[in-house]
Design brief:
Rossmann fold, SAM-dependent_MTases_sf, alpha/beta, Methyltransf_25
Length: 183
């Protein structure tokens, strides 16, 4: 059912969904592996879709860790809210820094992103990345996957410490960017 929902959403709006299928468990592991779950207190997920990463966040986070989940599609967001009521669900990642203040969060330890940046105009990419920078804690980490290396240059302008891993077992194979804030 999840795969059919994802495919139907992609057919209707390929620029905002970004893929024909949900992320694989291999990609979900690669995205959540860099997180130090025992010390993470605040985490955000951008572009949660049908919850491939949300499942891992729910299972791995400690009870003290607050999770804010951002998903623009109302059908997917409502399904996630029903499945993960212990998390906070919002429609717009462009309001992340404002939303975190509502929850008395000074900065996210980790921001995980499944947003299809390559489908967005540069102005929207910049706006979202400004929001990521504002919302990360001083030593926070931004973890994002993309299907190309297109974002490498833009991320290198914002982060001093970037590692990239490759996940071939996904539809489509993906690059995972692990970007550590050093300021």
């Amino acid at each position: 059912m999840e795969k059919l929902l994802f495919l139907s959403k992609f057919i209707r709006s390929p620029r905002t969904i970004g893929s024909i299928a949900p992320s694989s468990r291999f990609l979900a592991r690669a995205m959540t592996q860099p997180v130090q779950w025992e010390t993470a207190r605040n985490i955000a997920e951008l572009g949660a879709g049908t919850g491939s990463f949300t499942r891992y966040i729910s299972r791995l986070k400690t009870p003290e860790c607050q999770a804010l989940i951002f998903e623009q599609d109302s059908t997917m967001r409502n399904a996630l809210a029903a499945d993960y009521p212990e998390m906070h669900h919002y429609p717009n990642a462009r309001t992340m820094s404002h939303t975190m203040r509502l929850h008395k969060i000074n900065g996210f330890d980790y921001i995980l992103s499944g947003l299809p940046f390559m489908n967005f105009p540069q102005e929207l990419r910049d706006e979202l990345m400004d929001e990521v920078e504002r919302s990360l804690a001083p030593s926070g980490t931004f973890i994002a996957f993309q299907y190309s290396l297109q974002m490498k240059k833009q991320l290198a302008q914002r982060f001093d410490d970037i590692r990239i891993t490759f996940v071939p077992l996904n539809i489509f194979p993906a690059f995972v960017y692990i970007c550590k804030k050093t300021i």
